[in-house]
Design brief:
The protein is 71% helix and 0% strand. It has nine helices and no strands.
């Protein structure tokens, strides 16, 4: 089998982990530095997200993806300000991970694994990968690794959230972003590679049997 890019390279996993971690660190730092002020934490988090957005745009990232990341941080800050509970800055993260567990499991069960959809979109294949039974199987098995990633996050975030440990939530956000994302990408890539035969051309080249054209009568 050809040696294509890894999933980390295709999906920019390191960049996503940094973008997810820094605003949370900013929130916790502002919250602690200003006497557990939610306003201070929210301002630092949003300013951090704005700084990241400007940097990403200058590096040529797509504006839509950058603005979505900024929007999520702003919503998280507004939730914490509205409830008056610093822990609620992380509520959106907790809920999104819980929803992700459900979404990824359903996608595998209905044979539309989200890992295949994401990678196929990045590679410009649309749904062509799904017509390759080998790739479909590989993406389905690799998607279970992503399910495990979200389950781990929920299992860690939920007790910390219920205990009101804001600083610990920020630390968990960092630990479960970079290291966990890197592990998830590496393991899911290993699972995919293990399920592709040696003669398969790789993710960029789904093996699809084209319909035979009937001869004109």
């Amino acid at each position: 089998m050809a040696q294509p890019e890894s999933l980390a390279e295709l999906l920019n996993g390191r960049r996503a982990a940094v973008d997810a971690s820094l605003p949370a660190v900013g929130f916790a730092a502002g919250w602690l530095a200003f006497g557990q002020s939610i306003w201070a934490g929210a301002i630092v988090a949003v300013l951090t997200a704005i700084g990241l957005s400007v940097w990403r745009l200058r590096k040529g990232d797509k504006p839509r993806a950058v603005l979505i990341g900024l929007f999520v941080v702003c919503i998280a800050a507004l939730i914490a300000l509205y409830t008056g509970n610093a822990n609620d800055f992380f509520l959106l993260q907790l809920l999104s991970n819980g929803a992700s567990v459900l979404a990824w499991v359903i996608s595998i069960v209905i044979r539309w694994p989200l890992l295949g959809i994401v990678v196929g979109t990045v590679l410009g294949q649309r749904t062509r990968w799904r017509r390759d039974p080998v790739l479909l199987k590989a993406y389905s098995r690799g998607s279970w690794v992503w399910v495990a990633q979200y389950v781990i996050r929920v299992a860690v975030f939920l007790p910390l959230y219920q205990a009101g440990l804001t600083a610990a939530l920020a630390g968990a956000r960092v630990a479960l972003s970079g290291p966990l994302v890197a592990a998830c990408l590496a393991v899911s890539w290993w699972v995919i590679r293990r399920n592709l035969p040696a003669d398969h051309p790789g993710l960029r080249h789904p093996v699809v049997d084209e319909p035979v054209q009937k001869a004109a009568s």
